[in-house]
Amino acid sequence: MKNKKIALGVTAALFLGSTVGFAAGAGFFDNATTVEQNIYKLANIATQNKQKAADVQSKLDQTTSQQKNLQDQLDSLKQQLANKQNEVNAKQSEIEAKQREVESKQQEVTQKQQEADKLRNELSNAQNDSAQKDARMAELANLSQQKVNELGQ
């Protein structure tokens, strides 16, 4: 594309040069050297434009490369973030599993505490019954002793 522009510019310059040459030959320009100098100036301008285009293309290539590097870095950071999120999710799952285990153990403790309370109540009731029976036995023993004493008199 650049070469086509340069070739077109040189062709235009030659066409203009031949037109100018024709005009010079016809007497419009007294100095053919001026025409030749103008052709060289146009060639220099075309060369400078070619260099500017090459510089711009180089800068574009550099910018594109930098953009690709930045995109690669961004993609890498996104992947790292996704990996960290997966780690966090895994840890969260572990925490939730431990929490369920703790809750299960707490339920077991509560159940065992209730069983222990029930057994304490049963023991207390049994001790009260035993104390009442002991008291009744002592009372019966006293009554029987009194009856024996009354009959023995």
Automatic annotation (TrEMBL):
Bias (Polar residues) ranges: 83-92, 142-153
Signal peptide: 1-23
Region listing for Disordered, in residue ranges: 83-153
Record key words, sorted: Signal
Keyword Ligase: no
Biased composition (Basic and acidic residues): 93-106
Top-level taxon of the source organism: Bacteria
SUPFAM superfamilies in alphabetical order: Tropomyosin (SSF57997)
Protein name per its UniProtKB record: Uncharacterized protein
UniProt organism field: Enterococcus hermanniensis
